[in-house]
Amino acid sequence: MTTCIRARRRGFTILETGIVVTLVGLLITVMVVLFSSVLKAQRQVMLRERQRREFVRLDALLRSDVHAATKAAIKSPNECELTSSDGYSWTYDKQDSWLVRTHAQGGRTLQRESFFLRPGSEVHFQLSPAGSRSLVQLKLEPEPDGRPGEHHQPRYFAQVLLGGALPPVREEPQP
């Protein structure tokens, strides 16, 4: 009686192992590049969202401060001082990557707020006449993006009438 001995393979050749190791290395490299790209995109989205929230907060405070003020002075393009008739003052000043709002009364600081600005942003305050009152303008310009693929930071522009909204126009009844 003859017995058939089945030949069984017990391992892998060096060539097969080399091919598998190379393919696994390529797969890991692709995964690292993809993961890095996802993290970079998430960081950009988070920065834009943070900047948007800061603009909303800045807009609300700037409008209420300018409406409450009776006098405005632009000390430099980066600094604006607002004062009211009852002794309150508000100062907006760019410091590094922050726009700092200081609320004071009689030289005593009551509140300090900081608004995040992306590095390289420019701040421009301007005072323009608007009839018998003044118009306070604030423009925040982002640093120009010179890199391809970079998303552009949103701009901020506000025009607020000093002392509040214009009073309603009274119409005289005609005889």
Can you walk me through this structure?
The chain crosses the membrane at residues 12-39. This is Type II secretion system protein. Keywords: Membrane, Transmembrane, Transmembrane helix. By secondary structure, this protein is of the alpha+beta class. The chain has a domain at 17-117. Helix content is 31%, strand content 34%. The chain contains 1 helix and 8 strands; from the N terminus they run H-E-E-E-E-E-E-E-E. The strands form 2 sheets. Strands 1-2-3-4-5 form a 5-stranded antiparallel beta sheet, covered by helices on one side. A 3-stranded antiparallel beta sheet has the order 6-7-8, covered by helices on one side. A hairpin with a 4-residue loop joins strand 2 and strand 3 (88-95). The longest helix has 55 residues, at 14-68. The mean pLDDT is 86.
What structural keywords apply?
175 residues; alpha+beta; five-stranded antiparallel β-sheet; three-stranded antiparallel β-sheet; 1 helix; 31% helix; 34% strand
